[in-house]
Amino acid sequence: MPRLLACLLLFFSSLVLAAPKADLWPYWQQHNASSQKVVDHQRWQVLLDKYLVVQPKQTLFRYKAVSDADKYELDRYLRDLGAVDPRQLNRREQFAYWVNLYNALTVQLILDNYPLKSITKLGGFFSFGPWDEKLVTVDGQKLSLNDIEHRILRPIWRDPRIHYAVNCASLGCPDLQPTVFTASNHQALLDKAANRFINSSKGVSPSGSSTRLSSIYDWYGSDFGSKRQLQAHINQYRQGSPVTLGKVSYDYNWSLNEAK
């Protein structure tokens, strides 16, 4: 029995450490550069305005307070997004579409399973979280959160700031932004999200010659480049003294980002 337990612990540890690679799903690569179509994200904005609590060091969500009527509005918003063919949008509109879809699906997933202490408690017995579950159908294709992040967003846009935009409902995650992503604001919002995370202790925490970084920089190191490139990226947004990445450790808090 101890041997079996050790094997299970090793298995689950490998699940945590093995972040998915960016692997393009070619079906979603198409876009319409001349499209002027604008996707309406107002329902999602209303929910953020009502239930997101922005604190100086952490953004939290009031899951327990969400009314049945607003749960319906969230479901309606997601059904509306599912009825859109994002391949007919321009790239800017597509980016906002996928990020908002990811974040709204994550909130709905928590609400559907509330109360819980961590999103990692969801999924099957041999799963670390629900990220591979098919949660939405878009243009006849069933999609998971991992599909959206690692098979669409990361390989198409190749922008490390994507990791600051998608939210996994955890305290260690970059904050859920209080403003929905749109075609016109997404670049400024990505910079704002990067700035907030990098200047938070959960993102970058220097102490003498050592620096504790979010595990995001370990899991997705290929997106940030070499240690020198990562250091330049961090210092691009870092306020105060620049960070030198000498001795580095990593940490992540999977507790639910809930406002009590």
TrEMBL record:
Start and end residues of each DUF547 domain: 87-198
The keyword Signal is annotated on this UniProt entry: yes
Nucleotide-binding recorded as keyword: no
Secretion signal span: 1-18
Coiled-coil intervals, chain numbering: none
Highest taxon of source: Bacteria
Keyword annotations: Signal
PANTHER family for this protein: ELECTRON CARRIER/ PROTEIN DISULFIDE OXIDOREDUCTASE (PTHR46361), ELECTRON CARRIER_ PROTEIN DISULFIDE OXIDOREDUCTASE (PTHR46361:SF3)
Stated name of the protein: DUF547 domain-containing protein
